[in-house]
Amino acid sequence: MSPTRYPPPRIGFHCGSELKKCRAQETRLFACQDTSHDEKYIRDCFLPSLLGWFAHHNLSATDKMKVLAVLAATLGLASAQAKLTNSQAVSQLSASGISVSSSGGCSDRNTPTCTSLEQVNAVTIAGAKTLKGACGCTVTVTGGTEVGHASGTYSHYNGYKLDFSKTSGLNSYVTNTFTRIADRGDGYPQWQAASGNLYCVSVDEGCFMTKADNK
Domain of life of the organism in this record (predicted)? Predict the structure, then answer.
């Protein structure tokens, strides 16, 4: 069976004030006219176009991972996730209007009552910032990389997941915007965004993750 072929994505927006404009409706994903592929380019041009392409073609989570794997191999990206310190992560979240709360009033990664973001994946924090900007609702992180969560490759401790305080605004946005998929292994309902990110709504909190592990 021949592999599914998708037409190249097109971009209809510009890459930010410091970067030259993409050719609307003519520029392909990697053809932005500025070669300084810095954080702003990635955030304002590359990622939105890639996610829009995912959504347009309604790719499955498996196909999305295949595309990302090809991109990583093509661009020579390291397999390891870029990590942030707790202070770096908190600073980025705070700048986006996201607060961090701890039942123990601490950020020690080795204490389960603390909320630590030490060694969280940069992409996880970026996902939280995107969520905040899209929903315009209150987003408070209540769980990060501290001990006490379930283990696994794509776990909290390894930087892939965040817990959010459950609010009506966040709950409404997740359940009305994303696609309802099968429940997690523990029975909690979950929704999937076009990016592949998963959101689980439990009794007390919403759980955000950057990769599905169905746990």
Answer: Eukaryota
